């Protein structure tokens, strides 16, 4: 004798039990501690861990260049790290080519062509109108910042001669950044465009930041067997810095 309570066996006919059914009594289910749940359809989730670093949003980085060859007589921003707004004065440039184009503007036969030429040389409509109204040419052109942001590169000095297209400053808008992550090829099954990503940084232990996957590199790195995944992150508070891990 084992001292256990015996459970009566109920025999059902084969017609009542399907090939994928198991029938047990209520008492047996209690002893077996069986729990049941309603079957539901939902997405399968999985946690994937990746490493990476924060970088500039390349769509929010612009170079400030010379529209015309000339001499830099003044730089309004002396060093990198300065915050500038859209339209702020950045460079005061002397250019003989600019003077020649303005003289053409004052000639009735060349006025229309000269307006377009000056526009391409970086003058706005108000500056062109002032030249026409005053009848006087300007020896210098002021180059303004095309966007608000932080000056991250300064590539020129006062007194330096530059050619058309020479980069003078680089400005980056840090209100949005990219997080570049390395995903192993075995994890690609779980990664999709538009997914929300949570990440932490060494600078703020325990604090979780969020972003959205915006790009998955179509090429696999054959040495690391990883794919670059890019995440767009809001940085309106300015806490995240490029190159953070």
TrEMBL record:
Domain CusB-like three alpha-helical bundle stretches: 97-139
Pfam families referenced in this protein's UniProt entry, alphabetically: 3HB_CusB, Beta-barrel_RND_2, BSH_CusB
GO cellular component: cell envelope
Keyword Transport: yes
Keyword Coiled coil assigned: no
Ranges where the CusB-like beta-barrel domain occurs: 177-245
Alphabetical UniProt keywords: Transport
Residue ranges of domain CusB-like barrel-sandwich hybrid in the record: 62-172
Cited InterPro entries: 3HB_CusB (IPR058791), Beta-barrel_RND_2 (IPR058792), BSH_CusB (IPR058790), MFP_Cation_Efflux (IPR051909)
Biological process, per Gene Ontology: copper ion export; plasma membrane copper ion transport
Family label: Belongs to the membrane fusion protein (MFP) (TC 8.A.1) family.
The name this protein goes by in its record: Uncharacterized protein
């Amino acid at each position: 004798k084992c001292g256990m309570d015996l459970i009566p066996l109920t025999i059902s006919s084969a017609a009542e039990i399907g090939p994928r059914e198991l029938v047990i009594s209520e008492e047996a289910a209690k002893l077996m501690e069986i729990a049941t749940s309603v079957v539901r359809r939902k997405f399968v989730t999985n946690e994937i861990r990746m490493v990476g670093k924060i970088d500039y949003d390349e769509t929010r980085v612009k170079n400030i260049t010379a529209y015309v060859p000339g001499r830099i007589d003044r730089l309004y921003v002396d060093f990198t790290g300065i915050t500038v707004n859209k339209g702020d004065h950045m460079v005061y440039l002397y250019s003989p080519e600019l003077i020649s184009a303005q003289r053409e503007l004052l000639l009735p036969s060349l006025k229309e062509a000269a307006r377009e030429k000056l526009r391409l040389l970086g003058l706005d409509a108000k500056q062109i109108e002032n030249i026409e109204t005053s009848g006087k040419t300007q020896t210098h052109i002021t180059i303004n910042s095309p966007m608000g942001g932080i000056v991250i590169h300064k590539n020129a000095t006062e007194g330096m001669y530059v050619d058309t297209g020479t980069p003078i400053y680089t400005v980056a808008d840090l209100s949005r950044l990219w997080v570049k992550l390395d995903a192993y090829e075995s994890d690609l099954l779980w990664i999709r465009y538009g997914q929300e990503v949570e990440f932490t940084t060494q600078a703020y232990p325990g604090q979780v930041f969020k972003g959205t996957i915006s790009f998955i590199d179509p090429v696999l790195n054959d040495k690391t067997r990883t794919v670059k995944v890019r995440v767009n992150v809001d940085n309106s508070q300015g806490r995240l810095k490029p190159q953070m891990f």
